[in-house]
Amino acid sequence: MTRSTLDGVSLLEELSPTVRDRLAQRCKWRNYRPQQEIIGRENPTRDVYFVATGRVRVVNWSYSGREVSFEDIGAGGTFGELAAIDGEPRSATVIALEETNVGAIDPDGFLEAVMGDPATARRLIRRLAAVIRRSTDRIFELSVHGANIRIYADLLRHAEANMTGDNTAEISPIPVHSDIAARVSTTRETVARVMGDLARRELVVRKSDRLVVTDVDRLAELVEE
Asked: 17, 83, 160, 192: which has the highest count of C-beta atoms within 10 A?
């Protein structure tokens, strides 16, 4: 079992090194293999998890088996806060995407540390507010947009976060079609068709290890249209 530090956890940046070290000692540390489940939906546990190394994905599955992806969380991220706060069962499943090391702390220890420091409490509130905003945007997109527009919007979000010039972006690694499909609630075949259309229009160009969006403004126009 790897013993790790919490110094890289963004939620805890405002805490003193002494407090973070005390929390790290209180954590239960565990390594997970790729595709291994860390927590399951409806699980009654309430621990909060800190990602020391690796990357995890927050997902659910429909009754037909379709994956619905909510968020990927990398090193320095946190998950499991909702159950610690409201005492309800887990709202989603979390799986490791690669070799991952996480520390799990009991809800009392987590809330004591967070609520005892105003700056850290504000960070938690902002994180939860961001979750609500993303959920609101996703509900809106699912309600009013067809699958092709949802794919454009997902690609636009990644492009805007990876701008390389006034109107171009480079997304690395190249987005996986099944991952996009899980995020926007459609099929991999639909994603392949839409991405192929964008490639024919030269709005996206595949390089060896990245996807270049050649006209971010035009992509935004497609979303608006």
From this structure: 83
Token pair of 135, please? 């959920």
Contact 67, 182 (CB under 8 A): yes
* Long-range residue pairs from 168-171, CB within 8 A, at least 24 positions apart, any chain: 168/212, 168/213, 168/214, 168/215, 168/216, 169/212, 169/213, 169/216, 170/207, 170/210, 170/211, 170/212, 170/213, 171/210, 171/211, 171/212, 171/213
Q: Rounded to an integer, what distance in angstroms lies between the CA atom of residue 27 and that of residue 21?
A: 10
pTM: 0.74
Instruction: Name the β-bridge partners of 224.
Output: none
β-pair partners for 129: none
Q: What is the pLDDT of residues 5-55, one digit of tens each?
A: 899 999 999 999 999 999 999 999 999 999 999 999 999 999 999 999 999
Least confident of 22-26, 98-102, 139-143, 185-189: 139-143
Contact 143, 214 (CB under 8 A): no
Cα distances (Å, whole numbers) of residue 113 to 107, 140, 154, 222, 223: 10, 35, 35, 45, 42
Q: What length does the chain have?
A: 225
Among left, alpha and beta (phi > 0; psi -120 to 50; other), residue 99 is: beta
Q: Percent helix, strand, coil in the chain (nearest 5)? A: 45, 25, 35
